[in-house]
Design brief:
Blueprint lengths: L2 E5 L3 E2 L5 E8 L8 E8 L5 E8 L4 E3 L7 E6 L4 E6 L8 E9 L5 E4 L3 E5 L2
Parallel strand pairs: 2-11
Antiparallel strand pairs: 1-3, 3-8, 4-5, 4-9, 5-6, 7-8, 9-10, 9-11
């Protein structure tokens, strides 16, 4: 059974770097045709795709984040991580890690999400 679990701090001071990790079980993040993304939803807003990694490690980012986002992976631990620098209160949101199926199309597994608040 595929499971994704986000972890990280719930409170981040403004201007600092947010770091979240997604631990994946039930499938290797290097399995062909799967893509691993970070998506967030701010209060009262829709879902926003932040970026992701392909099964081969290629990185993809939303242009809206400019150069603030970085995504990496640890294949030994079957984890991938999001780093978002210079956070502001506008980065307050629930953050989800998600698996995308490149063959079938669409996102088929989601973590439960983790709430992140940017505040001093």
């Amino acid at each position: 059974q595929v499971q994704l679990q986000e972890s990280g701090p719930g409170l981040v001071p403004p201007s600092q770097t947010l770091a979240l990790t997604c631990t994946v079980s039930g499938v290797s993040i290097t399995t062909t045709n799967y893509y691993w993304s970070w998506i967030r939803q701010a209060p009262g807003k829709g879902l926003e795709w932040l970026g992701g990694l392909s099964y081969s490690g290629t990185e993809y980012y939303s242009p809206s984040l400019k150069s603030r986002a970085s995504i990496s992976r640890d294949t030994a631990k079957n984890q991938f991580s999001l780093f978002l620098s210079s956070v502001t209160p506008e980065d307050t949101a629930r953050y989800y890690c998600v698996r995308g199926d490149g063959s079938a199309g669409g996102d088929d597994y989601w973590g439960q999400g983790t709430q992140v608040t940017v505040s001093s």
